[in-house]
Design a protein that fits this description.
By secondary structure, the chain is of the alpha/beta class. The chain has 12 helices and 40 strands. Among the domains are: 80 residues; 87 residues, no CATH class; 122 residues, Leucine-rich repeat, LRR (right-handed beta-alpha superhelix), CATH 3.80.10.10. Helix content is 12%, strand content 17%. The strands form 5 sheets. The chain has a 19-stranded parallel β-sheet, with no helix packed on it. A 14-stranded parallel β-sheet has the order 4-5-6-7-8-9-10-11-12-13-14-15-16-17, with helices on one face. The chain has a 3-stranded antiparallel β-sheet with strand order 1-3-2. Helix 3 crosses helix 4. The radius of gyration is 34 Å and the shape is elongated. Keywords: Leucine-rich repeat, Plant defense, Repeat. It comes from Aegilops tauschii (Tausch's goatgrass). This is Disease resistance protein RGA2.
Amino acid sequence: MALFLVVACQNGTLDSLKLSYYYMKREFKICFAYLAAFPKGFLIDTNRLIQQWYALGYIYSEHDGERCINYLLGMSFLQISGHPMVNQGPVHANVSRKLTMHNLVHDLASKIIDDEFLVLDPEANGARSWKKAIHCRHAELIQYENQSNVFDCLPKNLRSLHIRDFQKWQLPPKAFSRSKYIRVLDLACSARQLTEGQSTSSNIMLPRSIKNLKLLRYLDSTGLPVPLLPKSVYTLQNMETLIMSNCSLETLPDNICSLHRLRYLDLSGCSKITKLPDHLKLESLEHMNLSNCHELENLPKDFGNLQRLGFLSLSDCYKVSLLPESFCQLFHLKSLDLSDCHELRELPEYFGNLFELDSLNLTSCCKLQVLPESLCKLSKLRCLNLSYCMRLDKLPSSFGDLKLQSLDISSTVSLNALPDSITEMTSLTRFGATEGTPKVIASFRKIQKHLNFPGIIEHGVQEIENKGCSSIVKLAQLTCYQMHVSQLQNVRNPEDAEIAKLRDKSDLRQLTLRWGNQGGEGKSILENLVPPQTLDSFCLGGYMSKDFPKWMSDISSYLPSLTYLGLCDLGTCDTLPSFGQLPNLRGISMENIPNVRKIGKEFFGRGRKCIKLRSIQLWLMENLAELWTTRRGFGKLSSSALPFDMSLKELESLPKWLGSLISLQRVIIRDCPKITSLPESIKNLTALKVLVLQGCKGWDILPEWIGQLTALQIIEIIDFPNLTSLPESMKDLSSLTELYIKDCQCLVMLPECLGQVISLQKLRIINCPNLTSLPESMKDLSSITMLCIKECRGLATLPECLGQLITLQDISIINCPNLTTLSESMKGLTSLTDLYIKKCQELAVLPESLGQLITLQDISIINCPNLTTLPESMKGLTSLTDLYIKKCQGLAVLPESLGNLITLQKLHIINCPKLTS
């Protein structure tokens, strides 16, 4: 009886579907019926489906195809799949969607197409009967195992042929000798087989009889180990779509340029291709996908001849270092993906000539330092992704002229400031900056507040009185792209979290879930807060359960598009899920997870690793004692610009493989008291720009080989109580611009060779009480602009050579109680604009030569009780605008000449009791 009811229900549903089909738009009916050519459960790629419809003459443009797909989605005849390849953020607008059909919908399509479609199974039915299928136009050949005779029996009027899962067998040379009318030839491996690595490594050649397919418009050989195209490919003059994705293709024949109608070329994943034909004249080409062509070195010089090109992906082309000048002649280019082009150093000067460009993805172009000014002329550019461009140090001044809607600058760690013009970018609706310098993050928050972006929701959960539920249920009705949900401890009923329906919010890209200080058992709540698969960024804080719900344990399946993961204040968690399985993860931050003792192989699980990982931050992991025993878990980090940032109290040594990450740019080690030295392998980090060492209390020396890090720009040495000196090899740090030394109580001197670091621009020395003098060689620091000396109690004088620092703009001397005088040689500081003196109790007089500093704009003198007078020469300070004097109890009189300072705008005299008038 139950079986009868199920069958009756299915028949009723099918009748309803037939009725819906009856009222379907006429032009879409034939497109729908063609879907029967795909097996039940098949993941249909939208781009390829549209190209097949076009090749068969069912539609006249790709726009028509998109209309049809959206129409079928609206009727629920198609559904968007939650497949791991989905990623539909703003900068992924051209990424193909994956579609599925319900089995009953597939049954309907099969009934409609009727005898125009056949499943050809050599094992199940006699091949000879196929010839009699005179109405057959579309066929699917399955279970082919070298039965060469089956091709003699193909229906002669076929328009499309799909050969499924034959990659272990070679097609016979005469396979297509009788097939004159085929428009679509689909030889692609299934996505499942590619994922599971089932494709054979032995080569397959396309049969030479393919030249007989004179009407062929669409050829797809995805995943087949095809090393080269047949020489006769040039005879396929009607070819419009050629897909060789994930093949073993080693080269493209020059005569491919004879395919004058070719519109769509997909070579993605052809990792053996090193170059394209020199004269690539494909005058009809509109779509070109070269992503994951890892060995492709550069584009041909005349690449700009592809005048109709609208879409180009060079994503993960690791060896592409420059774009040819002719590139800027691609006047119809709308979408350009250069993400993970690790060697790309610059964009062409006339990049702004790409007037039609709408989307530009530069994610993880880790050697890109500047953007051309002409980029700001791209008036149609709407989406720009600069995330993880870790060497990008500034944006063009006219950046605000762009009419961007989406901008991402996450983890641009070298970017020191944002141009003021961004505040006028009123078209901006999405702005991402998950990591960056404090100044940039502060500017980001200010801009975010100023522009009042739509689509951002911050919700603190509360109990709703008299309704027996919490306010989280209100989220079900809201649409946004960024959501911050806090006070989750107020959710008493797990069903409330389910009602919020986060998983249905397909527009959501950034999600933060946080429990308050009270914490509380949260697993049952988190279990019902499953995010949508399109999520880019996820942060979890204050979660106090020991383990995680299923969706986080299998996070790579639930959140395949995730690029950033932040975990904070997980007080009881002692093991982590296999976050290393996330295929698109670029940044991970873990802070205050005190019970985790090990991050090892289990973190990465099995299969593909997080090959795009660029940023690791580990903070306050107090009991972490084991960290990644091998480098394998990091995938291809030798091509990355990964920051290595950690604070781990129990870790005793750094992994030796750290030195093999040859593109590493930042190493930050804080509060790791058990680490006593750096592994010598770090000297191989020739791209390292930032080295921060803090709280490594067991060190008394720094390694001499530190001078071999010639790309180093910033060194910070903080809280080294036993450090007595710095290595002489520092003289070889030819790129060093900033040196910061703090809380080194035993440091008695700086090396005399310091003066040889002529690139040094900023020198800060703080709380080094036993430092008694500065080296005379400082006179040679020809680039220095800022000098800060603070809490150096042993310092009694500054060197005479200080006056020779003609580039110095800013001097701060703070809490140096034994400093009695400043040198008269200060008159030589011809660029000085700011002088700040505070808590120098023994300082009694300022040099008379102070008045010769005609560039000085700002003087602050605070808490110098023995200072009795200011020099009369101050009348010569013709640029002074601000004078601030505070708590100088001994100051009894001001010089009469102060009245001559006509540029003075602000005069503050505070708590100077001896000054009476």
